[in-house]
Amino acid sequence: MSQNPVNRGYFAIGVEGISKPMNLGAVLRTAHAFHASFCFTIGARFNVRDVLASDTSVAFDSMPVQIYEDLAAFQQPLGARIVGIEITEDAIDLPSFTHPPAAIYVLGAEKDSLSPEMQARCDFIIKIPTRFCVNVSVAGAIVMYDRMISLGRFAERPVRVGGPAKPLAAHKRGLPVWKQKQLKKQHNSD
Length: 190
Fold this sequence. Notes:
Blueprint: E1 10-16, H1 21-33, E2 38-42, H2 48-54, E3 65-68, E4 81-85, E5 92-93, E6 102-107, H3 116-121, E7 124-127, H4 136-151, H5 177-189
Parallel strand pairs: 1-2, 1-6, 2-3, 4-6, 4-7, 5-7
Helix pairs in contact: 1-2, 1-4
């Protein structure tokens, strides 16, 4: 059974300097599965269009794939925060990171790190607390999964081993919080 959690905001994921077509294909398929708004490459070292033609999930039919020749051409959407995924001394451990509602995640290439110029453009740099670095597509999948479980709407984990004891309560719809506060303030002043 496929579950589509209710997430606010949007996210995109991309790779700077990717050199292996199969890794890009895996990033695209995984991003498609996690409902990414778009994917991108910056300075890819191969013809990205060849990868798109062989993508078995046909991700490019469901989300835009943007190809930037270099970092100077890269454009982030207004209001989006850039989150670099890189092992650095001051990077935030992923389990301790709160994802921004509008996020652009960027990974470094397989044989290299995020460029210093890209790191300087990042609002945050996060790392996956593993013994050593993992494959670029695996790192992307871990970050997208963490975003989904931390921002999605799921039943709380039970104290005991196993699944949730009771199903998630139905979402309550109503006025926006700011409007509720305004009406409450108005009611209290009457």
